[in-house]
Write a structure and sequence with these properties.
Layout: H1 2-27, H2 29-38, H3 41-48, E1 66-69, H4 76-89, E2 94-95, E3 124-125, H5 133-139, E4 145-150, H6 153-163, H7 166-169, H8 177-183, H9 185-192, H10 200-204, H11 215-228, E5 231-234, H12 238-249, E6 263-264, H13 274-283, H14 285-305, H15 307-328, E7 329-334, E8 347-352, H16 360-366, H17 369-407
Parallel strand pairs: 1-3, 1-4, 2-3, 4-5
Antiparallel strand pairs: 6-8, 7-8
């Protein structure tokens, strides 16, 4: 009898352990204690049947410190617009270059490439730079959230080929220029050593080109990036990525609503055959591994939230986007002079509606990268001057007070 009771207790313990492990995996440790208190007996039975449990999310405090590693041609202009708007609205401090919109490339980011503010506290890092975790960590707050965005490598290669005008640089003309280029991609790379041709996402994320010929190096780099980034967004699933960004930053839906920025017109896109696509994947196999790893990671996070809940939040995001399109925009502008573009590429941006010209939200949502960067830089420089004036005034008052005390 005692033996039977021991076996039953052991089985019960194992069953409870399995339930708890499954619960930890689905919901994540950070919300486990809160959500366990919300579960009923029926919920536990549902977990045993393999169902996903949806419980209330604990309240959180909006975060303000974020470092976004902006990679080339990965849909990152959309995210940059979101972060510039959020920082502007909340009067936060940006890490900014003295001119232009680059904080360092092809060299990694270094502090000497930024405008240093006298109060020495920075909230948002979002402009183009080659990723250096140590360099960015040195200037950002300890609780900074690290984020980047990746793009499917074949689509990225086609975009880069057109945008950076490789056809012209290599003397290739016509619609078959991309295929001809890919046919000779190895010799084209070694002739120029152009870092945009070999695993450009890994390069932008700090990996040196000469290390990319070793698969072990690539595996170790991916694991390193997985450890350093709190969220890796995927351009092909940008809305899902924005919902996850909203969650991790504890922001509102309107904070992550954005229009497509710096978008190429369909006339500036090349068709790619499956044979060419396969050769691009083979050549840039490091970027393929990187993308596949973080694409799977993205969907694991979505499953932790629950597909049904994700769809509800996607519907809300789309509804808010349509709302702002209706009140802020009136059509598309092709080749806006405020948007940098190569001469061979047509770029589309949204046009601000005349009735919304005094609406700060609409202005921010339609402002493209270069004008927006100039705007926040001028605003931050004014803030720095005002700070310095206050400091001088405070020092003068201290000196006057000290002088009075001496006279007494």
């Amino acid at each position: 009898m005692k033996k039977h009771m021991y076996i039953l207790k052991t089985l019960a313990f194992l069953l409870v352990s399995v339930v708890c492990c499954k619960f930890f995996f689905e919901l994540g440790y950070s919300t486990f204690a809160y959500r366990w208190r919300q579960l009923s007996t029926g919920d536990l039975q549902s977990l045993l049947r393999g169902a996903t449990i949806t419980a209330p999310v604990p309240p959180c405090t909006p975060k303000k410190n974020i470092a976004f590693s902006k990679l080339h041609k990965c849909g990152s202009s959309t995210v940059l617009n979101i972060l510039l708007r959020y920082g502007d609205k909340n009067n936060l401090t940006f890490v900014l270059p003295p001119t232009g919109n680059y904080l360092g490339w092809p060299q990694p980011f270094e502090q000497r490439k930024m405008i240093k503010v006298p109060w020495n506290e920075y909230n948002i890092f979002t402009h183009h730079s080659r990723f250096s975790y140590e360099g960015i960590r040195a200037v950002m707050a300890p609780d900074t959230v690290f984020v980047t965005a990746l793009r499917e490598p074949v689509a990225l290669f086609e975009s880069s080929f057109t945008y950076f005008d490789f056809g012209h640089k290599y003397g290739l003309k016509g619609s078959e220029g991309l295929q001809t280029f890919v046919d000779n991609i190895r010799s084209n790379y070694f002739e120029s050593r152009n870092v945009r041709l070999l695993n450009p996402m890994l390069f932008d994320l700090g990996m040196n080109s000469h290390d990319m010929w070793n698969d072990t190096n690539i595996d170790q780099k991916i694991l390193y990036l997985d450890e350093k980034f709190d969220l890796v967004m995927i351009a092909e699933y940008m809305d899902e990525s924005l919902v996850l960004l909203k969650h991790i930053m504890c922001w509102e839906t309107d904070d992550v609503v954005a229009f497509s920025m710096n978008k190429r017109a369909s006339t500036s896109k090349s068709n790619i055959t499956e044979d060419v696509a396969d050769r691009i994947r083979e050549w840039n196999h490091g970027d393929v591994q990187l993308y596949d790893h973080f694409n799977k990671s993205l969907w694991r996070r979505i499953d932790m939230i629950g597909r049904e809940r994700m769809q509800t939040e996607l519907d809300e995001l789309e509804a808010r986007r349509k709302h702002y399109i209706n009140i802020c925009t009136e059509g598309v502008v092709k080749n806006d002079p405020n948007v940098w573009r190569p001469s061979n590429v047509n770029v589309e941006s949204v046009k601000l509606k005349s009735s919304a010209k005094n609406d700060s939200t609409c202005i921010g949502m339609t402002r493209t990268e270069l004008p927006f960067t100039d705007y926040v830089r001028k605003k931050q420089l004014r803030k720095m001057r005002a700070y310095n004036v206050r400091q001088v005034s405070m020092e003068a008052k201290k000196g006057t007070t000290a002088e009075r005390r001496k006279r007494r």
